[in-house]
Write a structure and sequence with these properties.
Length: 380
């Protein structure tokens, strides 16, 4: 009988309900544990205040009695006033303490318990926002922080899974080829060694892409900044793709408006962005189609447009094309012409590193247009 490994165990719905109920009970116990010491501290503080007030009233009664000669009327006035204050102030203090406990100690205890749960790795916990005030804003900020931590943790897990998936195929091919050569299944000829070498190059490209993406996202990517002639940039990109475009039976149109301002940027990185967009356009445009590369004057800078007459992108896929390892057709692999799925994610990070923005418009069956907005002459 086939058994799944422990890490692939899928919990039964009943087990999930029991787990959630257990987590809620642990949460309540943690909150009660936090509230108890705080309540004792509040009682101690306000008890001390009551004692100080009573001592002050006794001193005041003594001073007033001495000041008015100590006759019976004055003594009665001081005595009645002292009794009223002695009885009234403790009740007022207790009422104030209870209200302060509800408004300060309870939210603070909830926040401390929630922080402990987050420190233990439970990113599903949220602090209840009961009413407006300073603590409600603090609770809102805490909840937003935990939500962002949860999203970051999910992205990290997805990235780990995606990287493992991308590495698996070339590693298996390399391993299979080498084992076949060692077992005399394959001859160590140029064909088999070349195929193995190509997979190692694919791994190297993937690792370099991941490195570039991580550095760009952390704002640590070194850029060789210099004045860039945009017309010359797009002309160089078009020249480097002329043979590939011709072989695919496509037409590449290049157009640069007069009076384009220069921009401050890294020529190599900008070339990498445009090359990625042109390569995608060639890959997804059928023979006989057209790819246009244009540079236009825009408000405060330059707008570079890459437009194709290819297959386009569906509305449901369009929001995700700049995500890591995204592919419109999950069944495609590098061997069938698909990239690693990092190109557009890197392109967006590189454009943003230059102080610009990249956007996309596409309709299924009607082509795709990428637009890059770059500031003119901006020192970064």
């Amino acid at each position: 009988m086939h058994r799944h490994p422990p890490w692939m165990h899928r919990p039964h719905p009943g087990e999930l309900r029991h787990w959630r109920r257990s987590r809620r009970q642990d949460w309540r116990r943690s909150v009660r544990h936090k509230r108890g010491p705080l309540f004792i501290r509040f009682v101690g503080v306000f008890g001390l205040i009551v004692l100080l007030v009573l001592g002050g009233m006794a001193a005041l009664a003594f001073v007033l009695t001495r000041a008015f000669g100590g006759d019976g009327q004055t003594a009665a006035f001081v005595w009645v006033g002292g009794v009223i204050l002695a009885l009234g102030l403790p009740f007022l203090a207790i009422a104030f303490a209870v209200q302060a406990f509800r408004d300060i100690a309870v939210p603070l205890a909830d926040m401390m318990a929630a922080a402990d749960r987050v420190a233990e790795g439970d990113l599903s916990v949220r602090v209840e926002v009961k009413k407006q005030g300073q603590f409600s804003r603090l609770a809102d900020s805490f909840n937003r922080m935990v939500e962002e931590l949860a999203r970051a943790d999910k992205r990290r897990r997805n990235l780990t899974a995606d990287v493992a998936h991308e590495l698996r195929t070339p590693l298996h091919i390399i391993q299979g080829n080498l084992e076949g050569i060692l077992d005399d299944v394959y001859e160590p000829n140029t064909e088999h060694i070349g195929a193995t070498l190509e997979e190692t190059r694919a791994l190297a490209r993937l690792v370099e892409d991941l490195r570039t993406l991580s550095l760009a996202e952390a704002d640590q990517l070194a850029l060789a900044l210099e004045p860039v002639d945009v017309a010359e940039l797009i002309a160089d990109v078009a020249t480097s793709f002329s043979g590939q475009v011709e072989a695919a039976g496509l037409q590449l149109c290049v157009e640069a408006e007069d009076g384009l301002p220069s921009i401050i940027g890294d020529v190599g990185r900008l070339d990498q962005v445009l090359s990625n967009l042109i390569a995608n356009a060639v890959r997804h445009t059928p023979a006989g189609g057209t790819i246009a590369l244009r540079a236009q004057v825009a408000d405060g800078g330059v707008r570079i447009v890459v437009r194709d007459t290819g297959e386009g992108i569906s509305d449901e896929n369009l929001p995700y094309i700049f995500d890591r390892f995204w592919r419109g057709d999950r069944s495609r692999s590098r061997s069938s012409g698909a990239g690693s799925g990092l190109g557009l994610a890197i392109a967006r990070q590189l454009v943003q590193a230059h102080g610009g923005q990249i956007s996309v418009e596409s309709h299924l069956g009607q082509g795709t247009m990428f637009a890059i907005e770059l500031p003119a002459g901006r020192e970064l």
